[in-house]
Amino acid sequence: MKVSKEQNASNREALIAAASSLFQQQGFAATGVAQISEEAGLTQGGFYGHFKSKSLLVEAACRQSLANGRDSWYALLGSGANDLDTLVDAYVSNEHVEAIAEGCPMAAYSCEIKSQDETVKDTFTHGFEDMVAILQEVLAGSFPNEAARREALFFMCSMVGSVAMARATKFTNSDLAEEIIAATRENLKSLAHSA
């Protein structure tokens, strides 16, 4: 039976969503095509009808996850009294530490990107640059123009690193994980407000 264009597009979206969630929870290497297909409600044959290789799906999932993160940041701008505080509070939070499957892929993927192909590395780098650009725009209100990019890079790396470290330590020392998040959040906000 022939699949409609709408169903075909829906199946592709389901594969990307399933892959994104599983990759962020388990990593690229530990997540197989069979598991992704099953999670998306498709067969492996259905998978290969959309993606010729797992690597192509890794790139699509990475691109979609990063775009979702960027869009969620844009949606937060203007929603609070201070955009930087709003972004820092949303990202550097215990809720984000827990939301691995739905959270920012930078905290989930950073250590694995180096072993991916050039297309995936490039997609990840562009996604990182997009997030830095948002921070740079927000920080331009607190820092001189020449310092805004440097601070945006520092803020982004601190935010991503704190979430990654809190995730890495929470199972053996949940108090430490919470301390990492609280210290990073407070220090970043303090730094921005003292500029």
3D structure, described in words:
The radius of gyration is 18 Å and the shape is globular. Helix 1 crosses helix 2, helix 4 packs parallel to helix 8 and helix 5 runs antiparallel to helix 10. The protein contains ten helices and no strands. The chain has one domain: Tetracycline Repressor, domain 2, CATH 1.10.357.10. It is mainly α and 195 residues long. 75% of the residues lie in helices and 0% in strands.
Structure annotation, total helices: 10
User: Runs with pLDDT <50, length 5+?
Assistant: none
What is the mean predicted local confidence, pLDDT? 93
Q: Tell me the total number of β-strands.
A: 0
The fraction of residues assigned to DSSP E strands is under 5%
In the CATH hierarchy, the architecture is Orthogonal Bundle
How would you name the CATH homologous superfamily?
Answer: Tetracycline Repressor, domain 2
Radius of gyration using CA atoms only: 18 Å
SSE order, as H and E? HHHHHHHHHH
Describe the main β-sheet briefly. Answer: none
Distance between the termini: 63 Å
InterPro entries: Homeodomain-like_sf, HTH_TetR, Tet_transcr_reg_TetR-rel_C_sf, YxaF_TetR_C
Organism: Pseudomonas vancouverensis
Domain HTH tetR-type: 9-69
Pfam families: TetR_C_13_2 (PF21993), TetR_N (PF00440)
